[in-house]
Structures are given as structure tokens and as C-alpha cells.
Design goal:
By secondary structure, this protein is mainly β. The protein contains 1 helix and 14 strands; from the N terminus they run βββββββββββαβββ. A hairpin with an 8-residue loop joins β13 and β14. The two termini are 27 Å apart. The N terminus is likely disordered.
């Protein structure tokens, strides 16, 4: 399958009142490493008491089928410097070149824990329980859970390695004897060459 990613939108800003008017305070604005909803997670969390909204879309070309999925939105809220809660909003999968009926895509609720024992190394763990919107609309009961371990290593000011190992489980709860389905995958990234 050929996958084309159109982009991601990240939002995290610090706004403070200044003599009755709103002004951006760039000196205290936190840094944010965005997670790309449904594709990859960073090794950091949203700063405490901050909310981030991230969204994207994807176009999938598979054999003679073309699908557009959007908005792939993720709300992240920082509880501490190392813990955030997450809500993946259900999306819509639109068949672009077929007469198929559009279907909802699953959302999810979960958390992320981040740990950076050294200025050049960071790790995070993400756990998400699925909200099977499309299946619920069809009267099906499905359990799903996914997790990822994300690692980042800065070898110099401009050279960074990143790795992700992801897994997922799903179970059809309506069918007797239905087997537990599982997936495992991973990715390796290099920046600053």
C-alpha cells in the first residue's frame, strides 16, 4: 500500500492577560514535540496543565481503491512533566473512487508516560484503549488496545535517531470462539544528516 500523508497540525500556545487585553507571552511559551495521530508519538509529553490539539489526514492507495481518512484528531492534556492523558477523536474514512459507504474510524482514550534520564536520551510509553465507533454503529462489540514504546537519542546537535515499537490487540466480543488478533510493528528514523 502506498501511503501519502498530507500533514499535521499542532497547537499549543500560552496566552496571558495583559491590562485587560490578550497578549502572547513568548518568553514562557512551552516547547512541544507533536505526535502525529495514528502514525507516531514523540518522546515528550504536553507541559503540565496545557492542552494540545493535533490533527492530520491520510490518503491511502491500495490496489484499485482510494481512501481519505480525516480528521485523525488527538487531544492531549499534560498532568505532570512526565504524564499526559489523551483522547483520539473518531474520524471518517471516505472512499474516494468507489461507491462504498463512508465509515467511521475508531477513536481512543489513553495516556502517555515520558522519561528523559539524560539530555541526549528520552523515551515514552503510550497506551490506548480503542473506541470502536464504526463497529458500534453496526451493532458489533469489539475490544481493542494498542501500545507503543518510543525512543530518541541525540548523537550531536544536528543528528538524532528515533525508534518506535508498536503493538495492538483486538477481539470481536460478539462471536463465540473468535480469536484474539494482534499486530506488532516498528519504525526507525534519522534526522540531521
Amino acid at each position: 500500500a502506498l501511503l501519502i500523508v498530507f500533514g499535521a497540525l499542532s497547537m499549543a500556545t500560552s496566552v496571558m492577560a495583559d491590562e485587560g487585553a490578550l497578549a502572547l507571552d513568548h518568553s514562557s511559551e512551552p516547547t512541544l514535540s507533536a505526535d502525529r495521530p495514528t502514525y507516531g508519538d514523540s518522546t515528550s509529553t504536553v507541559p503540565p496543565m496545557r492542552l494540545a490539539l493535533e490533527a492530520g489526514s491520510s490518503l491511502t492507495i491500495q490496489e484499485e481503491r482510494l481512501d481519505l481518512e480525516l480528521p485523525q484528531a488527538l487531544l492531549r492534556f499534560g498532568l505532570t512533566s512526565w504524564l499526559e492523558v489523551r483522547l483520539g477523536l473518531p474520524g471518517l474514512n471516505l472512499p474516494v473512487d468507489a461507491d462504498d459507504v463512508p465509515r467511521g474510524s475508531a477513536g481512543g482514550v489513553g495516556f502517555k508516560v515520558a522519561y528523559a534520564p539524560h539530555e541526549r536520551f528520552a523515551a515514552s510509553f503510550v497506551s490506548t484503549f480503542g473506541i470502536p465507533v464504526a463497529e458500534l454503529a453496526d451493532g458489533q462489540s469489539v475490544f481493542s488496545w494498542s501500545a507503543s514504546l518510543n525512543l530518541g537519542l541525540s548523537l550531536s546537535e544536528t543528528f538524532t535517531l528515533g525508534a518506535t515499537v508498536a503493538s495492538g490487540l483486538s477481539q470481536d466480543l460478539d462471536s463465540e470462539g473468535a480469536e484474539l488478533a494482534w499486530q506488532v510493528g516498528g519504525a526507525l528514523g534519522v534526522t540531521g544528516l
